[in-house]
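Dissemination and training. As part of the outreach component of the grant, students in the summer workshop were shown how a complex can be specified as a set of sequence lines and then modelled as a single object. The example used during the hands-on session is reproduced here so that future cohorts can follow it. Participants entered these lines:
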Amino acid sequence: MIAEIGHFALLLALAVAGVQAVVPLIGAARGDVPLMQVAQPAAVAQFGFVATAFACLTWAFVVSDFTVAAVVANSHSAKPLLYKITGVWGNHEGSMVLWVLILALFGAAVAVFGRNLPPALRARVLAVQAMIGVAFLAFIAFTSNPFLRVFPPPNDGRDLNPLLQDPGLAFHPPLLYTGYVGFSVVFAFAVAALIEGRVDAAWARWVRPWALAAWAALTLGIALGSWWAYYELGWGGWWFWDPVENASLMPWLIGAALLHSAIVVEKRDALKTWTILLAILAFSLSLVGTFLVRSGVLTSVHAFAVDPARGVFILAILVVTIGGSLALYAVRAPALKTGGLFAPISREGGLVLNNLLLATATATVFLGTLYPLFLDAIGGAKVSVGPPFFNATFVPLMVPLVAAIAVGPMLAWKRGDLPGALARLWAAGVAAAVAVLGTLWLAGGPAGALLGLGLAAWLGVGALVELAERIRLFRIPASDSFRRAVNLPRAAWGMTVAHLGVAVVVAGITASSAWQTERIQLVRPGETVEIAGYTLLFRGTERVNGPNYVARRGIFEVSRDGEPVTTLYPAKRFYPVQGMVTTEAAIHTNLVADLYVVIGDPDSGGTPGGDPRVLLDAPADAAWAARLYYNPLVPWIWIGCVIMVLGGALSLSDRRHRVGAPSRARRPIAQPAMGD
Amino acid sequence: MTRKRRRLYILVLFLLGLGTATALTLTAFQDNLVFFYSPSDIVAKADVPYERNLRLGGLVEMGSVERVSGSTEIRFRITDLQHTIPVVYSGVLPDLFREGQGVVAQGRLGRDGVFHAHELLAKHDENYMPPDVADALKRAGHPQGEADPGR
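and obtained this result:
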């Protein structure tokens, strides 16, 4: 019964979205206010229905209702409650419901918080949002019904893929989707602006908070996914340039570009058509990401759907959305008036450079990710494009970007003074030199590490110098500086914090790729392994029983210079329901470096490789293959991402970004630039 | 600064970025495209791609997996049921590496005909058949290639 309610609610949501997609648009075209006002209650109702459907599906998972096909395929009565809930989106059907839930949530948020938006703009934004909703609700209703019943119901379910039974991955999809779908609002604003033929500073101010929220959620989602890959897959790496990872990186890069170009629209009334294009591209790439991972084109842990009908349906949504919006862009964009002029060396110029580098980087990732698919589709050779390609193209583009981040905010709007800005960044220059020389002294290279850490120091200190300038630190009494710091707009703090986050990430990426140490070795109980100054004494293995798995775990006593540090328990888990073995890495971190241990299989005469009996029944004195890593600064990658998100959140909390706060009254936009 | 001048600057910057990216990409592409072969592809090839980075895919032949005792070295054979290629790999096997299951090995084919793998891909799902492997098996006339590669 509950499942039927859910299914019915989903269909009602589809009907409401259909109305919401058409009626407000007609109203806006005719200037008919009652028709336009259909949009807000429709958006809220749509959210209500989708939320009901989602709640019903969650209920089916929580009570293990094995008459529902999705529950049978992805749940098990013995599974811990957390993973019963996260199992809702651990499968194709449920994950699409989550997708639509977040979409409807954003739509309702625009309806509720966008009271101060001009009625026509709000009606159009909500209508475009509803069109996306119609497409995806129809996709769910016609190709992937999550409430499909099975008869007769089996006694128990087939369980969730054990790799997904993990707290890190539990929250990865909702965050990632919040990012992807958040760009739909920006997209809807862009399409509405194109229909209206009007983009101004107020438009940019309305768009920025949504772009910020989407980008911050995407940052967190990607970081969580990468962290999961790091500790769960047992390969000691945190980014593999896997097509699925790239699919989420592309909208992130374009989203970052959009955040910055929207500033130029807001402050200087320039780069309008470009910003519109970025808004369209950010959501298009989110859709491409959804298509890549959901259509079965790529096979990975994410590819739940292999039904060709689904792939074709998503492809159709993709073609209509991207093709339609770009066609609209081609027709309408030339009509948008271009605004403020600026010299190449200026704040705007810096933001343009940021945009060019980010867009180019996106293009290289796009090429490397889709070229193999393209070649395969036209019947060419089967190839894969690996990390060396991305390292050779992506990294050189990031170097000037990171170098420029410190300089850009030091330039004035309109016309900047580059030598002056560089002179004021002397402290950052000193920090970079110290970092380079210090690295050379302590580690002696490699060249890439010198460059990376130098850049990180440059950017980190550069961001602080910019902050110090704003509060006139050391130039006026400290108490006045403090007062200035308190009164500084939150958005300014947000920028400084986010840029500091980038510096931390750069340092983490550089150090962990330059100085990762790996050791693969067969260890016998009582033997020791040395890595990076640590001594690990292998005490043998023991059997452990979990709620829905049995495990064999190794015991490694870690010491340094004779002092005990910790004990690590890397394990192999066997999940009998799915017949699957997973590796559980054991990690000791002191936030500066990680010691990372995984065990392979025993040298006990049995056939090596994944046979659970060999793993679980190995004699106590068996030697085990072990793989150890020492990963310097790797935690900084995720810490840096969290700092970036914090910066985004700070900026989002700025009063000026409160949705709909500013009126659209014509204010003089070309304010005199600083330093003029 | 006229509007035209500004446009010109932006255009030049853009072309510069595009040019750099294209140059980087093309060089990187040349060196880093990794081709996929099945055992039959390698046997059939006139100029066998010795000592080049490539991917070899197929099934892990039943009964072929053995550990060189006292070391982390593993020996096995990859088959597409027409031909087989012996493989050596040193390290920790992926969780889903099993006899009779699909696998993709990345590495180099030595002049002695032994494939030296530095990476084994057998990941994520036990029903997972790498699409390349499924395709290679289908071409070799094996029914498993027809099977649904996912769930």
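The first strand of chain A starts at residue 383 and ends at 385. Students were then asked to discuss how this feature might be tested experimentally.
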